[in-house]
Amino acid sequence: MEEGKILVTGGAGYIGSHAVKQLCNAGYSVIVLDNLSTGHAKAVDPRAEIVVGDVRDLGLLDSLFTRQKIVGVMQFAGKIIVPESVSHPLSYYDDNFNAVLSILRAMHAHNCRNIVFSSTAAVYGTSKEPAISEEAPLHPESPYGFSKLAAERLIRDCEKAYGIRHCIFRYFNVAGASEDATIGEAHPVETHIIPVTVNASLNGTPMHIFGNDYQTRDGTNLRDYIHVLDLADAHVLGMKRLLAGGESAIINLGSDKGYTNKEIVETVGEVTGRPVSWTYGPRRAGDADSIVASNARAKELLGWAPKRDLHQMIADDVRWRLGHPNLFGRPGNKLSSDIRKRLINYVSSRHFSTFYEDIENADRDRLSKVKNANRLG
Ligand SMILES: NC(=O)c1ccc[n+]([C@@H]2O[C@H](COP(=O)([O-])OP(=O)(O)OC[C@H]3O[C@@H](n4cnc5c(N)ncnc54)[C@H](O)[C@@H]3O)[C@@H](O)[C@H]2O)c1
What we know:
There is one protein chain. Residues about 340-365 and about 370-375 have low confidence and may be disordered. The chain has a domain at about 5-175 and about 225-255 and about 295-305: 3-Layer(aba) Sandwich (Rossmann fold). The protein has helices at about 15-25, 60-65, 80-85, 90-110, 145-160, 195-205, 230-245, 260-270, 295-300, 310-325, 335-350, 365-370; strands at about 5-10, 30-35, 50, 70-75, 115-120, 165-170, 175, 205-210, 220-225, 225, 250-255, 260, 280, 290. The chain contains 12 helices and 14 strands. Strands 3-2-1-4-5-6-11 form a 7-stranded parallel sheet, with helices on both faces. Strands 12-9-14 form a 3-stranded mixed sheet.
């Protein structure tokens, strides 16, 4: 293993916190950078260091890269709610594109050459392929999907220009929790079907399945699901490959098969022993019949295949929710008074735009002047 640390942005979030845990289990030294906008300080593995701050803050990044030997970055930080991206495109491009721009600037300036990036199946839009390969046409249908595709493009351009190698992962639907039920999905609002259905089952609240006349085995939408720990394992393999000098790659992370909405609702009822009270609602605009990933490339390049099935995703999610009735509470919870003070100071004093000029070689001097502008604790 190359000496040095892995910087995990968004490592206090749902997927990032599982990746941090798996990285620590694999023996890596990890630093988490997270602004705790939707993440939870308590979700960060105690073996990792945590810096509360924003990825778009170049002064902070410069300070961090100067003080630590960072050999690779995993970029999870971002916003994830598709309908919200339609009403708030500026915010989504800022968090999903500008954050990547900043991290690449810092990596370039500090000679860090390996990035693993969280992209999404939303870059494909509605595909007609039975199993979507990485070569499928790219037709995002939301600002969320476009912001991720733009970030992918930037990352690829930075390889050509600066030799920063990448592993871009396009995730399908992620679910589940850690096997020890210490961390799990705790978004301020859950929009994905598995947590929504588990909550409906545990709370006894009714829910809709949207549409029953799709071209699938039971007429309800069919989607590809992947356990968050399988996803995290793939990230560790992706980083290992880059650190060993492996070539850049864009890789789907999915299971090569799908489950229908009806199968999910029924499986949740079986796992909890509390059948979900549900009825059919109208179709939702834009929902494709079926979306499944081809994961052939992940198998070939990483030797990776998902090990955990739908039943385990649901069982782990249920165990996590039952053990944590308030989940982690609100995002950014339980900060020590010291961190809280820094967070408040930080938010009130941030001026990212100052840093958005080019920091190619000629600009390094200017960047060093803002070094320590945001002091790390
Ligand atoms: N959850 C899914 O099913 C799914 C599917 C496809 C892709 N993804 C991608 O995976 C990544 C992680 O998703 P998640 O479900 O863990 O989301 P999450 O909201 O739980 O985690 C995102 C984390 O990033 C932090 N963050 C956001 N903006 C930041 C910024 N500017 N600076 C520092 N920290 C910031 C948040 O506080 C949070 O901890 C996202 O980039 C998302 O687009 C997720």
